[in-house]
Every structure is written in C-alpha cells, then in structure tokens.
Amino acid sequence: MVINLSEHYSILCDWLAEIRDVEVQKDPLRFRHNMERIGEIAAYEISRHLAFSEKNIQTPLGTAKCKILTKQPVLATILRAGIPLHTGLNRFFDHAGHAFAGAFREHRPDGSFEINLGYLSCPPLDESHLILADPMLATGASLVKTLDHLLKYGRPNRIDVVSVIAATDGIRKVQDAYPEVSIWAGDIDRKLNEKGYIIPGLGDAGDLAYGSKKQQ
Fold first, then answer.
1. pTM reported for the whole predicted model
2. What is the pLDDT of residues 174-216, one digit of tens each?
3. Rg of the chain over all Cα atoms, to the nearest angstrom
4. Domains of the chain
C-alpha cells in the first residue's frame, strides 16, 4: 500500500510547499518545524488504521468507556535527517519504543555509492508495529538496508514507512524487497538525477535541518 498524503488537500500541502521553497529553506528552524508537523500528520493517518480496545476510565464524576490504542509502535529513524520527522511521530505515539540507524552514502570516485550502516540501536521487534521514518525515499537503498538490519531484532506484525518526499524508483525498490510494507509519503516525485537525488525534491534534508557537513 502506498499513500500519497498530498493527494487529499489539507494544510499539509502548505508545509510541503515551504520545505521545497529555496527561500523558506534558509530558515532551518522553520524547516525542522515543518518536518515535525508532517510527521504528526502521518502519525494521525496511520493511527486511523490501527487496533483499539475499550477501557473504563474513572473520571471525577463517574466512569467513561474510552477507546485506547491496543499496542504502541516502535519508531525507527535514519540519522540525522530523520530526527525531525521522528520527533513529529513521537508527539502522537508518545509511549512508543525507539530504534535508530546511522546509514549514509559512501561515495566512490566514479560517482557511484554504497550504503554504509555504521550504527544501529533497536528494541526487540517480534510481533511489534514498526514505523520507520526516512524523510527522502530516493533510490530506496538506505531504507532497504536499514530494514534488513532492523529485522534481525525480530519480525514485526506490521511495518509502515513514513517519508516526506518519495521517488517512484525508491518506492519500487522497497516494495520489491518488502511487499508487506505500507509507504506513507507527503508527496511522490517521479525522477532521480544521475547522483540518485530526487527531482524536484527539496535538496539534502539533513543539511537543511542541521547545516552542511563534510562529505567523505
């Protein structure tokens, strides 16, 4: 299942326009804030498809029968670009478990690259609900490699991927490797350039959120 959240007109579309805008991108605080808000929208939309149970809650004046989420998810993200998106998801799933992966592109002199996964921290995942936040689903290589390693910690009952911008090539790669995964994208772009970056995309989400880095 692939869900393009911008197909249903909402205030999310305004935030997507801002994070793509080269002028608004000059304000990293605004960029991070919009990424967080997109994470919140995704969390709400995902929650509408989850299991709930009824629980009696004592109020000052009586007992209320309330609907409670049956199981909190495990929220995973790919450092560093995924942190604001992860923060937005965590505001809604505030009792969630957490997993973190340090995946990055290691570039070769010929312009090609391979994914280096240098760090991983994860709770047990058997019978869990895993939500993996990766703001830019471009080639899909880093996301698939991260899932490969996360699933060594157990097999979830459900896996959702949340991206701000996803490319059709990246979506296809994830679906080929993990057809059971649902992908929730703020918007979907059709092209990648020769370096594997999304066109028109928005640029480097990590740099826009936290400043430029020295590329190895």
1. 0.90
2. 999 999 999 999 999 999 998 888 999 999 898 999 988 765 5
3. 18
4. 2-210 (3.40.50.2020)
